[in-house]
Design the sequence.
């Protein structure tokens, strides 16, 4: 009877490309994050606003092409918080206003429901990404593999980027496709073909700085809750500061805060991102505000990446 | 296989390892030293986790953190380093994918490696529910699963039960038998001795000696063993032991304590009951403060300081101690 060797088996196969390791870190991070029940609930909720806006598209297109459904369309659009187009403009402008109306609705989806969900989602998945590795010291096991710091950080960033894509880009693109399918006329494609590209550009504008900031916070501490606190503090403090300054301005001018242009968007990350997104969707934003917003987001991204790389370098190569 | 050229590692003002100059050929080595001796720092320098403050480290002729070098090295760290909410199977698969294995191959090898360390039943359970020994086995599996040429193990027996120790010992012997290299750190001499006969002795960040088991034991034979006694009339007992030339030195600890230094501990233990009867003294406590590894280190440190407790021993050890800088 042959006796088989069941001991250690050597291996002589080919190894895969080093860049696949980025994908390995990303897919593992996505799988681990997916185990969080709250994340799954949030992703489900993230699609509900798209349905609401889908109905708005349908009502608008019916009103435009068939003269029906205007009441429903008005009811929905007048509840949208963005005040760049009045409801009368929307329904009286005819097909000439189609593109700005679509852009307006997509941007409203982006800025309000998805913006809020983005802050919550990143606050849920990003803080543990690096801090957990530091706490368990598993980053040392990572780096005992043929893995560089850049691949590690890129892999972790891809986790955040993927989930942001799932709650912002994908619903917006699907909403656009739904809008086209629900439109009685295919001429809508000719009027609005650039909007999916603008959706992607607006997503990139959101994903890069927010991911960099979230990873920087995560890399600064072994305690995930501190990173989470830091993340939410940035948004809440910015928002409150912006609102307070706007109210002070409004009181000084004797007008409502909503009626005056903001001079203080740079104190709030949310409003800074909003300026750039508005510009991407084709709405007029003061050039100086755009420059400031671009400079702030570029600076924050750069500083955050320096923090992450520096921190990993110090920990990894003490 | 490994070259360290005047390597010093500083943590601020604290020295991790101090001026180590060493070349190791492929083979199996036990890195021995008490807690805080610098073993982990030494191993982390070899895996590229740390950069030397001074000097140069080469592994397989290259920088230790070079990807091609890291593919050849398996590292089992002293710390946990695992996520609690994933299974050992997922974890080892993940680390194998980071080594460049395709997912299907990684899964297959992870299953094999975990079966080999005796975790076939528990491999799909979350690591958070594992005992310390099971975690140790999982760490061992991740270190060996990618078929490295050099295996670096930092205190691999910590937390393992006797069966686990035996299993890992057998696996490591098999590893060596297959011609693979191994560096194993421990502060327990007999654990290392069961696996390899080549030792590196490190203490206070310095490589005190490198040599074979025979060389270490030759040091021990010349090291007086220490025996501590709590008894009545300690001075009387000390006088008698000196008179019978059973001890090399005696230290009185208060009225009731004695610390004996002897090269013939067995003879002392045999003679003590008779002396108790003859001198009508009572002994409340006897224990040997001697620890074989501790004794070796004490000896090496004394030699390094220039103490000449034994001419024979010192002449034998000169060869070994010069190993702070010498090749084996």
Sequence:
């Amino acid at each position: 009877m042959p006796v088989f060797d069941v001991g250690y088996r050597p291996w002589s196969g080919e190894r895969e490309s080093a860049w696949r390791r980025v994908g390995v870190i990303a897919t593992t991070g996505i799988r681990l994050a997916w185990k969080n029940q709250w994340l799954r609930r949030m992703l489900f909720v993230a699609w509900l606003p798209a349905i609401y806006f889908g109905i708005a598209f349908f009502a608008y297109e019916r009103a435009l092409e068939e003269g029906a459904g205007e009441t429903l369309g008005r009811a929905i659009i007048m509840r949208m918080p963005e005040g760049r187009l009045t409801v009368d403009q929307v329904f009286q402008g005819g097909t000439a206003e189609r593109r700005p109306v679509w852009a307006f609705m997509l941007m409203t989806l982006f800025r309000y429901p998805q913006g809020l969900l983005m802050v919550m989602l990143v606050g849920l998945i990003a803080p543990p990404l690096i801090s957990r590795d530091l706490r368990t010291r598993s980053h040392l096991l990572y780096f005992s593999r043929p893995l560089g710091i850049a691949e590690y950080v890129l892999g972790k960033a891809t986790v955040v980027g993927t989930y942001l894509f799932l709650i912002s880009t994908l619903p917006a693109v699907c909403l656009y496709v739904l809008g086209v399918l629900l439109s009685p006329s295919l001429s809508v494609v000719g009027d609005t073909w650039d909007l999916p590209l603008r959706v992607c550009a607006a997503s990139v504008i959101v994903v890069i700085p927010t991911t960099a900031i979230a990873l920087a916070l995560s890399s600064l501490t072994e305690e995930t809750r501190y990173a989470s606190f830091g993340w939410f503090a940035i948004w809440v403090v910015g928002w409150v500061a912006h609102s307070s300054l706007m109210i002070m301005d409004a009181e000084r001018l004797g007008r409502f805060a909503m009626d005056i242009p903001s001079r203080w968007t740079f104190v709030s990350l949310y409003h800074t991102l909003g300026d750039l997104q508005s510009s991407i969707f084709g709405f007029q934003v003061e050039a100086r505000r755009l420059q400031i917003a671009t400079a702030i987001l570029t600076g924050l991204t750069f500083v955050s990446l320096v923090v992450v790389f520096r921190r990993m370098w110090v920990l990894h190569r003490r | 296989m490994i070259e360290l050229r005047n390597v010093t590692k500083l943590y601020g003002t604290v020295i991790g390892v101090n001026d180590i100059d060493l070349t190791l050929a492929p083979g199996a080595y036990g890195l021995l030293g008490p807690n805080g001796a610098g073993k982990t720092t030494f191993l982390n320098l070899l895996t590229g986790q740390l950069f030397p403050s001074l000097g140069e480290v080469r592994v397989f002729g290259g920088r230790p953190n070079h990807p091609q070098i890291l593919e050849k090295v398996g590292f089992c760290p002293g710390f946990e380093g695992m996520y609690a909410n994933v299974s050992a199977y997922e974890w080892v698969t993940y680390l194998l994918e980071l080594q460049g294995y395709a997912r299907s191959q990684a899964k297959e090898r992870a299953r094999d490696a975990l079966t080999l360390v005796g975790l076939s039943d528990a491999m799909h359970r979350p690591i958070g529910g594992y005992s310390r020994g099971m975690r140790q086995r999982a760490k061992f599996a991740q270190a060996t699963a990618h078929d490295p040429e050099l295996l670096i193990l930092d205190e691999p027996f910590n937390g393992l039960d006797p069966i686990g120790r035996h299993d890992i010992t057998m696996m490591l012997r098999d590893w060596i038998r297959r011609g693979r290299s191994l560096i194993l750190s421990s502060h327990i001499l007999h654990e290392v001795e069961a696996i390899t006969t080549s030792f590196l002795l490190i203490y206070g960040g310095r490589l005190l000696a490198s040599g074979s088991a025979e060389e270490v034991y030759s040091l021990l034979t010349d090291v007086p063993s220490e025996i501590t006694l709590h008894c009545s009339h300690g001075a009387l007992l000390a006088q008698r032991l000196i008179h019978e030339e059973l001890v090399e030195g005696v230290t009185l600890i208060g009225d009731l304590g004695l610390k004996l230094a002897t090269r013939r501990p067995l003879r002392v233990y045999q003679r003590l009951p008779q002396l108790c009867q003859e001198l009508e003294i009572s002994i409340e406590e006897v224990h040997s403060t001697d620890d074989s590894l501790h004794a070796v280190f004490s000896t090496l440190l004394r030699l390094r300081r220039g103490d000449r407790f034994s001419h024979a021993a010192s002449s034998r050890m000169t060869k070994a101690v010069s190993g702070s800088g010498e090749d084996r």
Q: What stands out?
A: Chain B touches chain A through 42 residues (CB under 8 Å). Residues 308-328 of chain B have pLDDT under 50 and may be disordered. Chain B is about 40% helix and 25% strand. The longest strand of chain B covers residues 14-24.
